[in-house]
Each structure stands twice: as structure tokens, then as C-alpha cells.
Amino acid sequence: MILTSTFNYRTGSGNETISHLIEPGNGRITILFNAFEGAPRILRLWGKGRVLEYGSPGFNEIVERENIKTMPGTRSVIVVDVHQVGTSCGYQVPFFNFVDYRRVLEQFFQKKSDKHERGDEKESMDRYWASKNAWSMDGLPGMRRGLEAGKRFSVEPMKKMVGKLAPKNGGQAMAELQVAYLVIALLMAIIAILAATHPAFEYFPAQRRMQGLLSQVTSMPSRSVSDPGVL
After folding, report:
1. CB of 68 within 8 A of CB of 114?
2. What is the rounded CA–CA span in Å between residue 143 and residue 133?
3. Which of these, 9, 11, 7, lies nearest to 132 by C-alpha position?
4. Angle 6-10-40 (CA atoms, 0-180°, nearest 5)?
5. Cβ-contact 71, 11 below 8 angstroms
6. Quick check: 70 and 110 in contact, CB under 8 A?
7. Which tens digit of pLDDT belongs to each residue from 34-87?
8. 143-177 pLDDT, tens digit each
9. DSSP secondary structure letters along 147-177
10. Could you tell me where the beta strands, DSSP code E, fall in the chain?
11. Is 221 left (phi over 0), alpha (psi -120 to 50) or beta?
12. How far apart are CA 149 and CA 124, in angstroms?
């Protein structure tokens, strides 16, 4: 049985959840609950997640249907199809007393919204998303709306990692990864040829098998297109 759960995903400077949910072949998500009072317990919900971005038809439909209260800075609703539920002891989870919610994030985006409504286009959420939510820390695409706004408004995405080993965003990162794969494949081919031909490896069974295969290939009679049976 699959249980569907939803949660309101507020805007922040990070974007990892969205990026990894829309990553091809990924989409996994785990929701973690800790018991900070009473008996110790950890509860996990494992599932596949879907991202409904702010303003999209799916977002608008589920907000209306579920009567979800949105506020300035809301960027998406995450829908999780839960396929596994599990608990663990939680013996090391400390006790915490809840005091109150922090209002800083809410106040921050309320001020941005007020400035934008007064005509300051630089304070739009689309520009914020383009700067900070278009890409993940490891160069994966993030909010589609942020990516589109980045192109439309020529917004340079914020660098979230620096240094020589910092990943690059998008196509450049994929191109460099493909080059790395090609180099690895060439090196493996060279090693295989050396292992099949170098005298130092002549007593290895793998080398004898490789030599046998090479001899079979080179001894095969060549046939021209005009030979009978050749298409």
C-alpha cells in the first residue's frame, strides 16, 4: 500500500531536496521524526517525492484541495508516495523543550514581498530563486522556475562551493564528467592491451585468453561485399 503525504517547502538559500527529487533516476526521499519528549523513538517514512512548484497547476490544485496555508517565501509543495514506514529506538535522541517558532524567515520574505508589490522588481521571488535555488551545491538543476528566471532576467546563480574541487553547474559539469569517463575507458583499454601482450604477464590465464581471442580475430578470413552470402 502506498500512503501519500505532503509538506509545504519554504524558500531558503539551499535547494538540495528539489534537485535530488527531480534528478533522473533518483527521486528518493526520507522524512524523519524524532521524539524529543516522552518515550524515545525515531520514525522514518521512505518514499518517492514529486515537486509541485509555486504557481504551477499541480501546486494550485493541491493547495486549494487540501486548504494549505501559503505565505511569502513558499516555493513548492512536496508530494511523497510513502512505500515504507519504520521505527528505531531513538535511545540517543536528547530531550528538547519547544519554546516557539522562529519568525525571522517569515519576516524576511514578507519584507521582500512588500518591496516587490511597491514596484521594486529586484525583490521578486523569481530573482531570488534564480540566484539561490536554480542549482544544487553539486551542480544539479533545481527549481525550473528559478532556471527560467535566470535566463529571463540574466541573473547569475550564486556560487555555493568554491575551490578547485567545487562542482560546476549543468552542462559544463556533465561535459567534464563525460570526458572523465572517456579517459577512464581509454586507460582501461590500454591496460587490457598491455596485459595481453607484455611478456611480464605471459603466465597469467587472462593474458592467454586475450591472446587467443586476438589470434582468432586476426586469423578470420576477410570477405568482400561481393562474396556470396555477404549483404
Report:
1. no
2. 6
3. 11
4. 60
5. no
6. no
7. 999 999 999 999 999 999 999 999 999 999 999 988 999 999 999 999 999 999
8. 999 999 999 999 999 988 888 777 777 655 555 66
9. HHHHHHHTPPPPP---STT----HHHHHHHH
10. 3-10, 28-34, 42-53, 74-88
11. beta
12. 10
Within 10 angstroms of residue 164's Cβ, the number of other Cβ atoms is: 4
At 93, the amino acid letter reads V
Q: Which residues have C-beta within 8 Å of that of residue 136, sequence separation ≥ 6?
A: 15, 16, 19, 20, 142, 160
Give the model confidence (pLDDT) of 104-140 as tens digits.
999 999 999 999 999 999 999 999 999 999 999 989 9
Q: What does DSSP assign to residue 92?
A: T
| Contacts with 96 (C-beta within 8 Å, 6 or more apart), sequence order | 36, 37
Q: How many CA atoms lie within 13 Å of 38's alpha carbon, on the beta-carbon side?
A: 4
Q: Residue 54 half-sphere exposure, CB side, CA atoms within 13 Å?
A: 19
Neighbours of 133 (CB within 10 A): 28
Paired sense of beta strands 3-10 and 42-53, if any = unpaired
What single DSSP character describes residue 203? T
Write the burial class of residue 215 (CB in 10 Å: 0-12 exposed, 13-18 middle, 19+ buried). exposed
